[in-house]
């Protein structure tokens, strides 16, 4: 589907994002982290691992100094993009690779940033030894417990939030059978995962996290029912998060606030954890001005939803530069999904976030 003009894409009830902050204004040199209200963490994924290993550039976090400079300046929360996923941090049974994750945690502490741990129980990016191994149910349960206890315990007191259960429901609200632990051990393993994580780090906030939960529907209903069940069973669940991987092929998520509010009403924290907004690119690969303005409105819509919910305490974009975005690798016809271009030039989406954060800070 071709990207339409801004006025068509915005849809009813959505207003265009604010224009870029003019040079010389009081916000012209203020980074996102300092523009934001004091009670809202502004985060990004830290590029590395995963699809980056297949590219013709070295590890971004390790070798790209300008990247690290922007990472330190703009954000007060960081999420390892791949460095804490099973295939990366636990590549062989009984063998852990903590080096890349340790480096991110150290960087965060040096720059006054908190860390969101990502992720402990997921159906994807698991190592072959786990997915292809022959284990009894007791062995599989012990493997998961050891992994959670070891990884969470290593970073005890150093990670603010953990995505404990990631993408555990299909779009129809049923548990994902691709998740080896859910398939082999049953849904009750989700409860166990939260309890083990809490024992390993009692102060960390523990989250459910998924995409496709930006509008009301059966998937959101499934998470709400699960949250109520876990809370009733006194499971240490602290939050619900929307990843918010969005495409301009579809409307902006104007019902996201209502979704987050449902979980806020349960006494949970809420968060935006992986926001990006991809678009169909014209021939030549350069977005039009209209596309960039529409993208800014999508970003602002998601931030507005978070700001409107009392205990939405973390707002994370999934990478800040198109240079290292995962989107073109997984969606070859789409791209330009982040708030900065390949050379860290700021897009209208960046300014929409900064202006909105500054207004919220002023009004709180």
Features:
16% strand; TIM Barrel; 40% helix; glycosidase; alpha/beta; single chain; 8-stranded parallel β-barrel
In brief, what are we looking at here?
The chain is of the alpha/beta class and 364 residues long. It has helices at 6-10, 32-35, 60-63, 65-74, 86-89, 99-110, 128-131, 137-154, 180-185, 188-200, 218-232, 256-264, 289-308, 327-330, 348-363; strands at residues 41-46, 77-80, 114-121, 161-166, 205-210, 239-242, 245-247, 269-280, 312-317, 334-335.
What summary fits the major beta sheet?
8 strands, parallel, barrel
CATH class: Alpha Beta
Strand order of the largest sheet: 1-2-3-4-5-6-8-9
CATH architecture: Alpha-Beta Barrel
N/C terminus separation:
41 Å
Shape: globular
Q: Which consecutive residue ranges, at least 5 long each, have pLDDT under 50?
A: 1-24
- Rg, rounded, reads 20 Å
CATH homologous superfamily (4th level) name: Glycosidases
Family: Belongs to the glycosyl hydrolase 10 (cellulase F) family.
GO molecular function, one term: endo-1,4-beta-xylanase activity
Pfam families: Glyco_hydro_10
Keywords: Carbohydrate metabolism, Glycosidase, Hydrolase, Polysaccharide degradation, Signal, Xylan degradation
């Amino acid at each position: 589907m071709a990207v339409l003009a801004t006025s068509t894409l915005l849809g009813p009830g959505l207003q265009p994002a604010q224009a870029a902050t003019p040079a010389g204004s009081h916000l012209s040199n203020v980074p996102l982290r300092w523009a934001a209200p004091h009670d809202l963490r502004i985060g990004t994924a830290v590029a590395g691992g995963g699809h980056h290993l297949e590219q013709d550039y070295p590890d971004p976090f390790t070798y790209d100094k300008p990247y690290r400079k922007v990472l330190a300046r703009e954000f007060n929360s960081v999420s390892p993009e791949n460095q804490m996923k099973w295939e990366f941090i636990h590549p062989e049974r009984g063998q852990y690779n903590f080096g890349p994750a340790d480096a991110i945690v150290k960087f965060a502490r040096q720059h006054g940033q908190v860390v969101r741990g990502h992720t402990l129980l997921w159906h994807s990016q698991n190592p072959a030894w786990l997915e292809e191994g022959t284990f009894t149910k007791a062995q599989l349960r012990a493997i998961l417990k050891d992994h959670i206890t070891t990884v969470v315990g290593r970073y005890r007191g150093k990670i603010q939030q953990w995505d404990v259960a990631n993408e555990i429901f299909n779009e129809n609200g049923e548990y994902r059978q691709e998740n080896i632990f859910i398939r082999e051990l049953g849904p009750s393993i989700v409860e166990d995962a939260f309890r083990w994580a809490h024992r390993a780090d009692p102060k960390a906030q523990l989250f459910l996290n998924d995409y496709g939960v930006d509008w009301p529907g059966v998937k959101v209903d499934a998470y709400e029912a699960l949250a109520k069940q876990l809370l009733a069973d006194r499971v240490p669940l602290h939050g619900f998060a929307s990843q918010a991987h969005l495409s301009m092929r579809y409307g902006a998520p104007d019902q996201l606030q209502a979704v987050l509010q449902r979980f806020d009403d349960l006494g949970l924290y809420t968060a935006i954890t992986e926001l990006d907004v991809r678009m169909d690119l014209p021939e030549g690969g350069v977005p039009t001005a209209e596309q960039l303005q529409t993208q800014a409105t999508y970003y602002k819509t998601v931030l507005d939803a978070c700001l409107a919910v009392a205990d939405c305490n973390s707002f994370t974009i999934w990478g800040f530069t198109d240079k290292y975005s995962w989107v073109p690798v997984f969606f070859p016809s789409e791209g330009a999904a982040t708030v900065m271009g390949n050379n860290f030039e700021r897009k209208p989406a960046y300014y929409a976030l900064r202006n909105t954060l500054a207004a919220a800070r002023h009004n709180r």
